[in-house]
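Project channel, design review

CF: Before we commit to the Oceanites oceanicus constructs, I'd like one complete example in the thread so the newer folks can see what an input/output pair looks like. Taking Tetraspanin.
RD: sounds good, go ahead.
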Amino acid sequence: MEGDCLSCMKYLMFLFNFFIFLGGACLLGVGIWVIVDPTGFREIVAANPLLFTGAYIMLAMGAMLFLLGFLGCCGAIRENKCLLLFFFMFILLIFLAELSAAILAFIFRENLTREFFTKELKKHYLRNNDTDVFSSTWNSVMITFACCGVNGPEDFEAIPHLPYSSLEKATPEACCQRELQSREGMFVNKEACLTGVERFQNRQGCYTVILNSFETYVYLAGALAIGVLAIELFAMIFAMCLFRGIQ
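CF: and here is what came back for Tetraspanin:
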């Protein structure tokens, strides 16, 4: 009976570590994408030290989970006490680090406020200059989500260095309505939009639009994080039980 219990625990341990291995691979992939993303998302992340640090923490955590999941699987299948003890100690450190990161993210969530993005937009945005990564990224976001600025077109009226003619308002082309929401999409009425006709402009701010679009995914990410922590906790319990059961 004891041998059957130990065997069952061994395979459960392997199963839990396999999920940790997959979770680490996912985090590693997302971290690499954020850091090397050619569309300019990296520059927006780099503008905020908290986001920049978070991207590298995600990358490091993904690599560690990837490695430890692999070691945990090997330790369980081979019944190696040294690997199991090594796995338990490091998974405990990662568990505590992830818990601390979640608490810090909750505490400093106000850094991702509407005011922060409005300030960054007014400071760095260069209108239709697609050679500037920050401006090009913002234009892509506004076109894709059919939105304008952070709060609305009024955000651009406070940017004195935007190069636009006397016949145009401060609203950039990216805020003009298109038949298809992509850079290749035809404008509904570009001239009227640029001269300030509101019905040809996207009037809603991107902050609200994106927040509404990703609200479901935020809860999904939170549930996933809780799931990962639970899996790690069970993996530590099984590792200790298996460690004690191996003769």
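RD: helpful, thanks. The radius of gyration is 25 Å.
CF: The helical segments are 2-36, 41-46, 49-78, 81-107, 114-124, 133-145, 190-194, 206-245.
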